[in-house]
Amino acid sequence: MTEQRGGSGLASVLRIQGVLVAIALSAGLAIALVHEWTRPMVMAQRGGLLGDAALEVMPGAASYRIYVRSADGGLRPMGDDDTPELFIGLDEGGHIVGAAVVGSGMGYADVIQLVYGVDPAAGRLTGMRVVASRETPGLGSVIVDDKDWVDTFTRIHLPFDGEQNLRNLRVRSNANHEQGEVDAISGATVSVVSVTRIISSSLADWLPILKAEFDELSGGDRG
Amino acid sequence: MMPSSHLLSLRGAPHLHADSAVPRLMLHSVIALLPVSVFAVFLFGLAALATVAVAILACLLAERVCGPRSALGDGSAILTGLLLGLSLPPALPLWMVAFGAFVAVAVGKHLFGGLGGPAFHPVLVGRVFLQAAFPSAMAQAWVAPLAAGRATELPATSLALPFLTPDAPYDGISGATPLSALKAGEAGEPLLSLWLGTVSGSVGETSALLLLLGGLYLVYRRVIDWRIPAALLGSVALFSAVLHAIDPERFPAMMTALGSGALMLGAWFLATDPGISPTTRRGAWLYGLAIGLLVVVIRQFSGQAEGVMYALLLGSALTPHIDRWTRPKPLSEGVEE
Amino acid sequence: MADAGMISEREDGVERLRLGFWRENPILVQALGMCPVLAVSNTGVNALTMSLATTFVLLSSAIVISTIRGIIPRQVRLACFVLVIATFVTLTDMAVEAFALELHQALGAFLPLIVVNCMILSRIEIMASRQPISVAALDAIGMGAGFMLGLVTLGSLRELLGRGTLFGAQVMPDRFEPWQVMQLPGGGFFTLAALVIGFTLLDRSLKRWREVPA
Question: Is the ipTM of this complex over 0.90?
Fold first, then answer.
């Protein structure tokens, strides 16, 4: 090192740059190699959690296609860099049996990400699974753990008003599921309200798209 | 405060400014809390009695284990236990009560250097620990007021074995507190029963009137600085009145806000602890104002139904800064009057 | 820094191994790398994965840096260290994501954040960049083991009290009421404080015990 002490000659600058470039190149090479090797495994698993949840909330679905909203407001199949937004469930024969939408919003502690199944034709929900949340363990976490409560989402009807707009889900004790009401849970008010609010606002976005595209998708599928 | 002087010499600021009279302070505080304690036993029966008794006994035990022997007689452990017991839900498993009391004294008080040392009120430390450790019990262990048979039997949940979940479910729904009912968008209690205290809630927080009476007694006895509760309650009144004026549907009226939850208990008996509150007059006003604002903000804009506990903790965290800011000479004796 | 350069006296590798594990324990004594320590010590498995990943990064970086320590120009040594560390962190992150997605999600951002773990940078600067490979590697293993000792103890305690389980297996009675706070960040803080107190007391009494017969 002593030869560098005094000078900042061209040689020493070149040497510094050379070493840095060499290290960076080796690092880049190593990362690229491992990336190529692990990428298929990662991609197979990504969307996996959401996909598993989607299959659970679409009764009868055996597989799915993943869509995202395109810039013009329609649907397009998911590309490499997209995160899933809509799952269309297919049964064993490849017929469309339902749709599952990915929704997210603020919960009590952090963002809640969930997948809910919806049957646009029948105007009802077909299920709900929270995929990611950080609600208070033991209180807000009932939105994941309380199987009975989670199951009620398979029975909730969504009344439409005259203009085909969805009436918001509401939280009540002694809820009437036929009227779009969700049971309140003592001690988990905020988490429960958050879940229903996320579904309501996401549905408000998605329902027009679903109603417009669902027939086309299913028609195209059958044809 | 304590006969052994070498203990005194170890202590850092903030100093108690009336150390010769700790037993007197404690005695007056206990006297001030007597009416509300008796009322609590009338309202919740055996559950209230057991909660307070267990809290006091556990505090005394922790004091005996962790503190200097001489301090046992100064009554501070009894007051800590009494306040903690009064601030807990009545049907809380008694082992949790004892656990919280132990944390209050062992961790909240003695780890911070014993009486006068803690920057945070030991009672709040104990209660916030219980709130964080056992949130579902703390959110549900309510008892409906004036329930039949309250004089002869304890709630089933009280008798859970140590460190185990009670067999019986909590009676969280019938006994929901007025504040959590408001939070859920349900109708509140009538104002009169809210102030009299014939509602559900923590053991000794329900009766705003009796707590007010006790607080005024302490002011009369010059045990506490009247500016702190005045500023605190005034700021809660002001901010809730403003909010109520903006949206009466969403925000409760001023008198409801003042009479509900642990506000009175906190304003008169916890916020005024000389160890955690500012020493100057201006500081006391600021401190009360800040806590009151925090109470309203937490109650109305967070997921919590009640915010007094956290507001008090945050408020006492401000105390050293308020003291420094309101005192021209940081190292002066600092006690006005 | 003036003249120290890369030249320092050769250290005793085995001694470094011992010191890193106990007397200079990175968590319980030096309090380094506190961010992952508090954030991902909520279960034993998370703590174990985190400490294995950290140890792997530390060990590989130490070996590489020690190998090329002769050619690293002093002026850009930190850049070189960070490049090497970041490479190994990225590799680890990708491997964990490919082979254990659930763990990857549990550890979240803290896996990539190993790159800023000050314990690693300090070992590289103090040891690996000045010592032969064998010493650097032993030091890294000692520090890694010390990190693991602290983190896994912390994680196990928090899991035991916060969930009643140990490495996923139920050990507390069925009706054990979990102390939820242990699973929250606050629980990490005061469990760590309790651990440091316990460690100091233990170390002190061990020392006394060793001195008495001598």
Answer: no
Handedness of CA B63, B164, B172, B131 (dihedral sign): positive
Q: Encode burial over C144-155: b for 16+ CB neighbours within 10 A, e otherwise.
A: bbbbbbbbbbbb
Nearest residue of B to residue C194, measured between CA atoms: B107
Residue B229 to residue B291: CA distance in whole angstroms: 10
How far is the C-alpha of A43 from the C-alpha of A34, rounded, in Å? 14
How far apart are the C-alpha atoms of B199 and A223, rounded to whole Å? 66
* B137 and C CB contact within 8 Å: yes
Chain B's closest residue to A191, CA to CA, is B303
Q: Residue B203 and residue A7: Cα distance in Å, rounded?
A: 78
Residues ≥6 apart with Cβ < 8 Å to B190: none
Mean residue pLDDT across chain A: 78
Distances (CA, A) of B190 to A178, B196, B234, B299: 33, 10, 22, 19
CATH, domain range B13-326: 1.10.3430
**Is C122 in CB contact (< 8 Å) with chain A?**
no
User: Is it the case that residue A220 has pLDDT exceeding 50?
Assistant: no
Q: Where are the domains of chain A?
A: 2-45, 48-222
- Name the amino acid, one letter, at A60: G
- Chains near C with 3+ CB pairs less than 8 A apart are A, B
Q: How far apart are CA A204 and CA C33, in angstroms?
A: 45
Dist. CA A154–CA C190, nearest whole Å: 42
Tokens in use for A10?
């061209």
Which residues of chain B are within 8 Å of residue A138 when distances are taken between CB atoms?
Answer: 135-136
Return the domain boundaries, chain B. 13-326
Hey, which chains touch B, using 3+ CB pairs under 8 Å?
A, C
- Rounded CA separation B92/B99 (Å): 11
* Chain A residues in contact with B180 (beta carbon < 8 A): 189
Mutation target vs C (from B103, B157, B163, B167; most C CBs, 10 A cutoff): B163
Tokens of C143: 């520090």
| pLDDT-above-90 percentage for chain C | 48
pLDDT of residue B141: 86
**B84 contacts: CB under 8 Å, gap ≥ 6:** B55, B59, B97, B100, B101, B104, B123, B126, B127
CA distance C6 to A28: 26
pLDDT, mean of residues A153-164: 66
Amino acid A1 reads: M
pLDDT tens digits for C25-79? 999 988 888 888 888 888 899 899 999 999 999 999 999 999 999 988 888 899 9
Give the whole-angstrom CA distance, residue B104 versus residue B88.
13
The string of pLDDT tens digits covering residues C66-121 is: 999 998 888 889 999 999 999 999 999 989 888 887 788 778 778 888 888 889 99
Which pLDDT tens digit goes with each residue over C118-171? 899 999 999 999 999 999 999 999 999 999 999 999 999 999 999 899 998 998
Residue C144: closest CA among C61, C84, C48, C56 = C56
